[in-house]
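Hi V.,

Quick status before I head out on leave. The structure for the redesign project is tokenized and pasted below; the design run finished overnight.
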């Protein structure tokens, strides 16, 4: 499995290039790098890059690649990096233009490299667009070393059947500590006082602060980060209240947070900190209406996601004094173009530093690497963004059941000769009580596998089934017929038709138990090349003809299972060593016949 990590260039403060870097050429005409044409100098801006800037040029170009293809490489081809370092000065490129040019180079290289990758690991600056996903023909997983996946086109990944994973716990402590620091800075106006000192002032009276002891902190979102913030601020003597639609009041009480409805929170809190994902329900959670219900002078912290706090409403509340101060690490647009909020004297702002600690970056990198290794080796699946229910599908115990569900879907599609309508998946037996969440998409993937859809996986099967006109539902019953009460059964039906299949797992082998009401006394294995046919129970000529065809083709008969008789006919499932090239001689002797090749 080949895995690539990358970063789209983002301009940082220029730094010295260091020893060993080639000097810049200040004479002669700058030629375009191989295969590219550059805009003329007059179109490129006015700031001329100096030799000291070349370290940043190289840092923008660098990207690490690992996997089966060997050692580290550059995202921008080395000859292009060399050309940039030799000619940027005479081109008088501005940083903005240089960034755009490097982005073009990195984008072209990303598209090229991603074609051979099974996995892609990125941090926040790399944009995994629909175009990148489309170019990556082998891609199975995108790993985000961090929490947010704003830089990944999750919808396009899902449609392509690519898993998107993140490391939701990797930066929790760093984000929580930054939030706590922001609360302290708001209470004592530390950044403003420090800036005043640097200006040569001594304004002791101007920066009168407040104690946190006895103040009420509202924590909106009580997941990993929210609870870490709450417990830390309790050490300062703060009373913590909060709200979370998922965490129960009993659970939040264990870490000292009293849960209240939002309408009761607004008038009670001195400080508000938000720790929710950015969803339609949380966008603009703090707005003109909610600010009006708060205590005058309430302090607001947002180190979660830009957009949770309505920035226009926040600015109006600051200007009116309804909000006494705000600390923001995130913005709706990053970097923010409208500077009114950032420039307000009662606003403390940072350039999205929540995860910017050495510890968090190292932790996230290690976690996402191990998550992908675990996925590739079949040990498990964690941190999935676009298919949380599939996490259990990658355990060794559940894999045979996923294979069975796919096989049943493929078999039912072949027997029913349709992929439209209503499909019901029923799990039977207590052992499969939680299995519907991952077996249902597996059945849908099997139903679609023989159609025109390509790359149908557990990730995109449900979406593609809906688009194909197939409505998939699931049910469960704790009762399974003997002798399968302990292991379980999976039953799949096309509603409104007589077509139904049922199967189980024997050891680690998927097996067919029933088809259209006909039961196999000994379940038939569903793997490898198979011939499935229905014929009159009193006519044995079909089996004799099949045996002759196998002999002529040099194909071995590995297994043969026949069902009970229904309306004078029975089903037969024949396992082969290889597919038969032609079933023409068999068709006159059977009611229906088809050939499958299952995993």
């Amino acid at each position: 499995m080949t895995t690539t990590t990358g970063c789209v260039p983002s301009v940082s403060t220029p730094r010295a290039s260091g020893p060993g870097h080639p000097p810049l050429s200040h004479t002669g005409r700058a030629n375009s790098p191989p295969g590219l044409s550059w805009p003329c100098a007059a179109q490129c801006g006015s700031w001329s890059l100096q030799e000291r800037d070349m370290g940043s040029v190289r840092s923008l170009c660098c990207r690490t690649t690992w996997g089966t293809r060997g050692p580290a490489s550059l995202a921008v081809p080395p000859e292009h990096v060399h050309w940039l370092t030799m000619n940027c000065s005479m081109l008088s490129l501005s940083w903005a233009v240089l960034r755009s040019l490097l982005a073009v180079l990195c984008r072209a290289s990303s598209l090229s490299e991603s074609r051979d990758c099974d996995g892609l690991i990125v941090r926040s600056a790399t944009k995994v667009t629909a175009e990148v996903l489309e170019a990556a023909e082998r891609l199975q997983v995108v790993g985000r070393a961090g929490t947010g996946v704003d830089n990944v086109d999750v919808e396009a990944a899902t449609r392509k059947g690519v898993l998107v994973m993140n490391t939701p716990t990797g930066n929790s402590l760093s984000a929580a500590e930054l939030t706590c620091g922001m609360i302290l800075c708001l209470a004592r106006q530390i950044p403003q006082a420090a800036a005043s000192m640097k200006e040569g002032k001594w304004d002791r009276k101007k920066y009168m602060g407040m104690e946190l002891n006895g103040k009420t902190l509202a924590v909106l979102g009580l997941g990993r980060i929210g609870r870490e913030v709450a417990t830390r601020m309790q050490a300062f003597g703060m009373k913590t209240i909060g709200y979370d639609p998922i965490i129960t009041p009993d659970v939040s009480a264990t870490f000292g947070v009293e849960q209240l409805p939002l309408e009761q929170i607004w008038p009670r809190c001195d400080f508000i900190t938000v720790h929710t994902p950015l969803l339609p329900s949380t966008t603009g959670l703090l707005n003109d209406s909610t600010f009006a219900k708060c205590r005058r002078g309430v302090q607001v912290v947002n180190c979660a996601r830009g957009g949770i706090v309505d920035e226009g409403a926040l600015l109006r509340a600051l200007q009116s004094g309804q909000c006494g101060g705000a600390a923001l690490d995130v913005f709706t647009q990053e970097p923010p173009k409208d500077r009114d909020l950032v420039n307000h004297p009662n606003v403390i702002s940072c350039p999205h530093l929540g995860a910017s600690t050495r510890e968090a970056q190292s932790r996230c990198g290690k976690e996402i690497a191990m998550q992908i290794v675990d996925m590739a080796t079949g040990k498990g699946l964690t941190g999935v963004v676009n298919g949380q229910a599939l996490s259990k599908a990658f355990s060794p115990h559940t894999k045979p059941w996923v294979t069975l569900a796919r096989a049943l879907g493929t078999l039912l599609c072949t027997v029913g000769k349709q992929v439209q309508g209503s499909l019901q998946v029923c799990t039977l037996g207590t052992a499969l009580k939680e299995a519907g969440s991952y077996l249902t998409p597996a059945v849908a993937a099997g139903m679609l596998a023989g159609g025109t859809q390509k790359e149908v996986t557990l990730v995109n099967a449900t979406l593609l089934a809906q688009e194909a006109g197939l409505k998939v539902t699931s049910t469960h019953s704790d009762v399974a017929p003997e002798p399968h009460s302990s292991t379980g059964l999976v039953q799949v039906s096309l509603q409104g038709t007589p077509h139904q299949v049922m199967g189980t797992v024997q050891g680690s082998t998927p097996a067919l138990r029933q088809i259209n009401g006909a039961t196999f006394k000994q379940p038939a294995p569903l793997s490898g090349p198979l011939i499935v046919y229905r014929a009159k129970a009193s006519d044995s000529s079909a089996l004799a003809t099949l045996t002759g065809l196998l002999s002529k083709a040099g194909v071995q008969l590995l297994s043969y299972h026949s069902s009970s008789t229904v309306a004078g006919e029975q089903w037969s499932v024949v396992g082969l060593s290889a597919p038969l090239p032609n079933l023409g001689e068999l068709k006159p002797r059977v009611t229906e016949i088809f050939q499958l090749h299952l995993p």
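Above is the designed sequence. Confidence is low (pLDDT under 50) at residues 7-99.

G. will cover questions while I'm gone.

Best,
W.
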